[in-house]
Amino acid sequence: MLLSSFSDEFVEAGCDEAGRGCLAGPVFAAAVILPKDYQNKSINDSKKLSLKEREKVREEIIRDAISWKVASVNHEEIDKINILNASFLAMHRALDGLETKPELLLIDGNRFKKYQQLPHHCIVKGDGKYLSIAAASILAKTFRDDFMTEADLLYPIYQWKKNMGYATKAHRETIIKVGRSPLHRLSFHLKEEQLLLNFKQ
Question: Where are the domains of the chain?
Fold first, then answer.
């Protein structure tokens, strides 16, 4: 069971992103405020859940959260400001959309760009430790997957419904063969040996 909160006295928002290592599409982020002492055994790191499990628990998160928001930064913005800054910006946009203002932010990972004057804690693998971060990871992942599934209807040759824009071998080979789509990020290098992106800074 993941931890329900980092502190007892503050209103906490968990934040996470999805799609940072993709070759196409936006990066999505979510911010979630859950009730104090909230428990849900189904919530976990989105990568540890099946598609069906993620879809089911997404509805539970939306139903139970005090406040939640999903936001994105598109591929053109990513190319302009790089993927790290785009991930931070997506989180900031999600936080902007919360109806309840948090007093403390729990961020998945080891880096974050300060949001307003709010204190924050960066927690490595936080989506496997705290419910609010895990909930944010599930919302970010499922909303991004929905986007890429719709985009697959426009550009089926890239098989985004299957790879969700990640740098699979088949995806990279298709780009080499037919070129990029209008949704592909330009700030990467296609190399046979790399699975992640080499972004311009």
Answer: 12-146
- pLDDT tens sequence for the chain (201 residues): 899 999 989 999 999 999 999 999 999 999 999 999 999 999 999 999 999 999 999 999 999 999 999 999 999 999 999 999 999 999 999 999 999 999 999 999 999 999 999 999 999 999 999 999 999 999 999 999 999 999 999 999 999 999 999 999 999 999 999 999 999 999 876 654 333 433 333
Task: Kindly indicate whether the domain formed by 12-146 is annotated with CATH number 3.30.420.10.
Answer: yes
As a whole number of angstroms, the distance between CA 160 and CA 6 comes to 36
Element (H, E) at 30: strand 27-33
The closest of 36, 33, 40, 63 to 132, measured between CA atoms, is: 33
User: What's the predicted TM-score (pTM) here?
Assistant: 0.92
